[in-house]
Amino acid sequence: MLKNVMKAVKEALQQVPELRYAGEDWGQLDYFRQSPVKFPCALVDVETVDYSDGGARYQQGIGSLTVRVADSRMFNGSFQAPPLDTEFAAFDLLQSVYKALQGLSGETFSPLTRTKLVRARRDDSIREFRLSFDFAFTDPDAGRRR
To answer: Over the stretch 59-83, which tens digit does the pLDDT of each residue have?
Structure first.
């Protein structure tokens, strides 16, 4: 069930023209001196899922996924402020990601709903924001035992 959500989100993010990389978050921004992604990027992972029994050997889940939207701009050595049209480009990118994912649904999950935006503080040249989206689904797989 969760795999279906992740695949649909990745496919939607690949349609965002500003992104140069979209995929599953397996630590690309955390564990490497030079991140193995092209910037700007969006990395997706399921953060939490709360399950409840729905009866007849199926469960209902309410999940939260996080999209890490990141860009890296190298310092150019100038103390001049960047041009106004590029200075706040990260917020245009966040809006594009939001538009691609808000309301996205599939046969196995409810429409995604944006719930939170958090700026991640880092000590490198990467500027990162974390968007959270909630969704619900029903998992009937335990009832399909053979």
So the answer is: 999 999 999 999 987 655 556 666 6
